[in-house]
Design brief:
659 residues, alpha+beta, 6-stranded mixed β-sheet, 27 helices, 54% helix, elongated
Length: 659
């Protein structure tokens, strides 16, 4: 019923030539979970299935009208892979009990093993043996395809299995037994039974008084089915469209799949989507239009339902269970989980690779224990949180200068063209050449911000710059000069107004300390924004003779040369950033030293305190001397007073004590 009217409607609205509408394995898993929650019997689930199909069709159609095809992008590949694997595993486990011949009241095999192991004594041996034979035949079908004479048995394995199974049950089952009596008989194999012959009558599903609450409760499941149906359908259609060179329109695909489900509900169908396997078969057969992929298929299925329905009576249910079991096993994606683990082991990928593994695990575990809907929602929510964290905490790469070997055939190369600025924390040899040593530019902090710079992460940039400047000052010799910061904006796609204001403040504050803050490698819209809003502040920080050169500087090497030229013309030394601390121990150590530090170690300038001046301790003072403080806390607090900007300037090159 699902493959009669739906393919014809897709041929009218769809854009993919090879798309074939039908009941895909993943959609069937989701539909089964939704229907099982709201229907206790096969008859009840068959009655409410059209309601779910209509909901799915309406949701897809509204998504097309509102141009919401981008919503499916929130279903990341790791989240979908973990969800599909857990769903397939649950589907496989749900087939074990019927393949053993246990009644429907026994429940899943997990429930039987954990709570009712005595039910295993009621296993029907004919059903078990037939299930084993059917599973073995399906598993060996690939080998049959390798033999020319046996190839049809492998290509049409499902049809052959159902035909042989029906012949066996017709000869084996005791005659005259009803379906209920067959379930209780120890030697009877359960069969499909009677199916209403002929074509279904098209009618709108009747909604009773109590069905509105049912429809409302099925709405979350219908949303999930609609999203997954469009995601799997559009991904397959896009792949075939790219390979064969024709356009696939998301709007048309949403409308087409939505109308397929709305029209299919008139015939009592379950939700449908585009089948990737059927698309591959249609392409191999040379199908070049919607007639071959959908219309002719719909006509053939209608003829089969009209004239061959009685042939389905003796098909064994355990054979159908075996088909579902083997089909679901092909959906297991543990190999993709292994690929993600290999991805996460590489140091270059680091946090991003580990986050993908975490999303896969959450999607798998939550689907396995909480169900399909809660499982995929958990994985999607985690994916969105990771996206937010990655945007708020982007990677900041500290760049170092790597001297590249001279190119053959180029005798005279300018020095700046032989420099490559690379991440100092992720160096590897590339291109078959051994990478040379990477060095920091003396007195210049070069970094690359990887991601958009906006209100949510600009504060992190400021904190990182302060920490990196302090690290350089404290790990360098006494006469070290921190001259400039060069911001490589090659990985910054856009700036918002908050980021622009913060950059203006940083440029001016660094200029007040005679430190340059320059932005290199800008492009497109970012270049225009930097030139119009930040160019004037960068020029004012330079010596007047060098300001015209700023417009011609683009690369990091250009700005490094500009920094050194500016420092050569400047008479004032850059003032370093002073680390602040609230530790009373730092003030106590300062107060305990009466001796002036030796000249040449740091500086012998006086640090202003309220009661009396004390010489500022340097980091080379022996620890034993620093430990000779015996004053009480009140005495210490009476010594200190707030440090003014004038006092800070008087300290000069004196480094604050922070031990």
């Amino acid at each position: 019923y699902s493959c009669m009217l739906g393919p014809v409607l897709y041929a009218v609205f769809g854009t993919c030539i090879h798309s074939s509408i039908g009941t895909g394995a993943l959609i069937c898993l989701l539909v089964g979970e939704v229907l099982v929650e709201h229907g206790d019997s096969v008859e009840e689930r068959s009655r409410i299935a059209p309601f779910l199909t209509i909901l799915v069709g309406v949701i897809l159609t509204l998504m097309g009208v509102c141009r919401l095809s981008g919503l499916v992008r929130f279903l990341s590949r790791p989240a979908l892979s973990g969800f599909i694997t857990a769903s397939a595993l649950l589907a496989m486990l749900s087939q074990v009990s019927p393949m053993l011949g246990l009644p429907d009241s026994a429940g899943s095999i997990q429930k039987v093993l954990l709570h009712q192991p005595e039910r295993l004594l009621a296993v029907k041996w004919p059903t078990l043996l037939l299930s084993a034979v059917a599973t073995g035949y399906l598993l060996s079908a690939k080998r049959l395809k390798q033999h020319p004479r046996l190839k049809p048995l492998g290509d049409f394995k499902e049809l052959v299995l159902l035909g042989l199974g029906a012949a066996f049950c017709a000869a084996w089952d005791p005659p005259g037994l009803s379906q209920a009596e067959c379930v209780e008989h120890p030697l009877c194999v359960k069969v499909v039974g009677r199916i209403e012959p002929g074509l279904p009558h098209a009618h709108w599903p009747r909604v009773g008084a109590g069905d509105w609450g049912l429809i409302h409760s099925m709405l979350p499941g219908a949303c999930l089915v609609a999203l997954v149906a469009f995601l799997t359908s559009f991904a397959g259609a896009k792949k075939f469209g790219l390979e064969d060179g024709y356009q696939i329109k998301p709007f048309n695909e949403l409308i087409a799949i939505g109308m397929c489900n709305v029209g299919g509900a008139l015939l009592g169908a379950v939700p449908t989507s585009i089948g990737n396997t059927r698309m591959g078969i249609a392409r191999q057969c040379g199908v070049q239009s919607q007639l071959g992929a959908n219309v002719f298929v719909s006509i053939f299925i209608a003829l089969a339902v009209q004239f061959f329905t009685p042939c389905l009576f003796y098909i064994p249910m355990c054979a159908l269970n075996a088909i579902i079991l083997i089909g679901s096993s092909h959906m297991l994606e543990f190999a993709h989980a292994g690929y993600l683990l290999e991805f996460a082991r590489h140091k270059e990928f680091g946090r991003d690779g580990r986050m993908d593994v975490l999303v896969w695990i959450v999607g798998f575990v939550s689907t396995l224990f909480l169900g399909a809907f809660k499982g995929i929602i958990s994985a999607v929510v985690l994916s969105l949180l990771i996206i937010v964290l990655q945007v708020v905490n982007p990677h900041i790469a500290l760049l170092g200068r790597q001297q590249e070997p001279p190119q053959s055939g180029v005798p005279h190369q300018p020095p700046r063209f032989r420099h490559r600025w690379v991440n100092m924390r992720g160096q590897r040899a590339s291109g078959g050449l051994v990478a040379t040593a990477v060095e920091e530019e003396p007195g210049v902090l070069v970094f690359r911000f990887e991601g958009p710079l906006f209100y949510a992460n600009v504060d992190q940039l400021q904190e990182w710059l302060e920490a990196e400047e302090l690290r350089r000052i404290e790990e360098s010799p006494v006469d070290y000069e921190f001259k400039a910061i060069i911001f490589s904006a090659i990985a910054v796609p856009f700036l918002d107004t908050t980021a622009i204001g913060a950059l203006q403040t940083m440029i001016r504050s660094y200029a007040d300390r005679n430190v340059l803050f320059l932005i290199a490698n800008t492009f497109a819209n970012t270049r225009r924004i930097v030139a119009e809003t930040l160019g004037a502040d960068q020029r004012r920080a330079l010596r007047e003779d060098l300001r015209p050169r700023l417009a011609s500087c683009t690369t990091v090497d250009d700005f490094v040369e500009l920094v050194h030229a500016n420092r050569a013309l400047s008479k004032e030394r850059p003032r370093p950033l002073i680390r602040t601390t609230s530790s009373l121990l730092s003030l106590a150590s300062l107060a305990s030293l009466n001796a002036t530090p030796p000249k040449g170690t740091l500086a012998d300038r006086q640090w202003p305190l309220q009661r009396r001046p004390f010489s500022l301790a340097c980091d080379r003072t022996p620890d034993a001397e620093m430990g000779r403080f015996t004053a009480s806390t009140p005495a210490l607090l009476s010594l200190a007073r707030p440090i003014s900007p004038r006092d800070r300037a008087a300290a000069g090159r004196a480094r604050p004590f922070d031990r």
